Amino acid sequence: THESICQYIAKESGSVVVSVGYRLAPEHKYPAAFEDCLNATQHFLQNTEHYGVDPARVTVCGDSAGGNLAAAVSQTLAGRSDLPKLRAQILLYAGLQALDFNLPSYHQNQGVPPLFRERVVYCALLYVNGNAMHMKEVLEGSHIPPEMWLKYRKWMSPD
Length: 159
Prior knowledge:
Elements: H1 3-13, H2 32-46, H3 48-51, E1 59-63, H4 65-77, E2 88-92, H5 104-108, H6 117-129, H7 135-140, H8 146-156
Parallel strand pairs: 1-2
Helix pairs in contact: 2-4
């Protein structure tokens, strides 16, 4: 689905673009997609010379669920001393939190296609569980234990 945009970015920026075809939910639940992206990135970083790429210029990028995967790969590799450091991460409308789907941004944009609030929750549940049977609980916010709400409140507050 992203081949043409990857080709465009490569051509216009004079860059090498490696697009990872990771396994998709619901057939392949978490962490399959993450493992695919992490393995591909590690392989690429270990072989930059083979690909003719300056290891100091490698950036990861993703949109939507791919943005979530790019962020997770970046965080996982941040402490690795055996691999070149990633130069940057580019996250386009990345799904980065699943604690509270009642934050103002979700309500303000709940009717904006293609990321309708219910659709975001539905897709997130397919990614994690392979099904969306607990959609009501997630939309209400009852999927998070009270002690976790307290722990993350300062980062998740609408204020």
